[in-house]
Design brief:
secreted; two-stranded antiparallel sheet; mainly alpha; disordered N terminus; about 525 residues
Length: about 525
Amino acid sequence: MATQVNVQPGHGKAGRQPTRQFLDSLSGHDDPGMFGRMFPNLEPLAVDDAPLKELADAMKDANPGDAAGNNTKIPAGFTYLGQFVDHDITLDLTSLGDKEADPLAVENFRTPALDLDSVYGLGPDGSRQLYARNTGDADGKTPGPKLLTGKTISVDDVTITPRNDLPRNPEGFALIGDHRNDENLVVAQTHLAMLKFHNKVCDQLAASGVPAGEIFAQARQMVTWHYQWMVLHDFVERITEKGIVAKILDQGRRFYRFKRTPYMPVEFSVAAYRFGHSMVREVYSHNRKFTPGGGIPATLDLLFRFTGLSGGIIGDLAPDPVQPPLPIPVLSSNWIIDWRRYHEVLATNPPNVRLNPSRKVDPFLMPQLHDLPGGGGSLPFRNLKRGVMLGLPSGQDVARAMKIKNPLTSAEIAKGTDGAVAKKHGLHEHTPLWYYILKEAEQRGGGEKLGPVGATIVAEVFVGLVHGDHQSYLWLKGKNWKPTLPSKTPGDFTMADLLRFVGDISPIDGISTV
């Protein structure tokens, strides 16, 4: 059976999408609804398709396997943590009736928030298909506080008994709060790690004597607050600069402002936050079975094939007996992730365990993203085109509005083969915002982090999304709250800390703790 692969990392569609008509109707920094502009008074940049297409074609990484293009400061797991976070803040659980009553998303909508609704759905009552049965219930007819996880099937010499796949329905669809998190294997395993994180916290609370009826609420709050801290201080500050979150909390948000309710700014969602597309690798060291030099390389294509949304996990529709590699009913045991290869779980990895770096944050995307399967076309062209369609201003206008002290010069934008194409069409002086932010990361951040425009937009939006959530730690406890779960550095909490706390570091190798 052939399997179609849908390689669109980071920005699958779910729920509403902004329209130019709605965005153009906004002014100022009132609460605009689900979408809005950070810079509503700036002129949109108009560029024809032909120059955009030529620029997009010049954004192809000519040497995607060259180590010179690696960003050793950011492990590759953050590429897919970024995708998980994107799905969390863009998940739309608004009812169909509310959408029909409020098509512009002005009042009846779910606020963008780092609240893990992609994991919890509507909770045990509203989304009971996501939850395990209550073992404390005599007849087992109610959901308990724990989230479901899914089994794998044993393949090759890898026999695994714990649950190391997403839970799935009889035809392979993932039973999770956001179907997009089954799009590729690394984001699926990241989602699974979050399920296990919640369950481990439930176990800890139960062991400490918390009454059964209070475990879910306490666990959700603890998990969500640690996740929010991790996103702000491990993810955001890793891609921007250390201390930027505290600086924004002290001095206030200058550009991402709202009166009461956060919104999703298109300068963030359509430009700044799409920096992650340039971080995608062509080949990964996934585990001891699938690794360059010691087995079969885990190509991006393969990471999409071993999923239920994009690939060949099809539940009961798979042949019986199973005939690996694909199609299969659930994830095969030989594809379970080895987290040591994606995050800095160990101080130093063993020589045979390669930590994947991300690719540099720069204007170059791997070739496969220029030719998406299924007629998806060029991802860089789609990004550039979408910016024009939604009326984004130029990078120069945004930099001026932000009073950036050292904005990119036209000569800097014109550097390189990509810059030469930009200059040919005058785009070195009036630059699409997404491309400007990638060029700024290359020229100002050395490809290791975002430059001042990109960093400010990303950091302010994430701080605002957390602060605008009235259940967040920033709202309920303030900026001086510190994580309480075990961590390498007390009072801090990173993705590596989360994975160490959960255990199951590399189930394929029988490694649970480090």
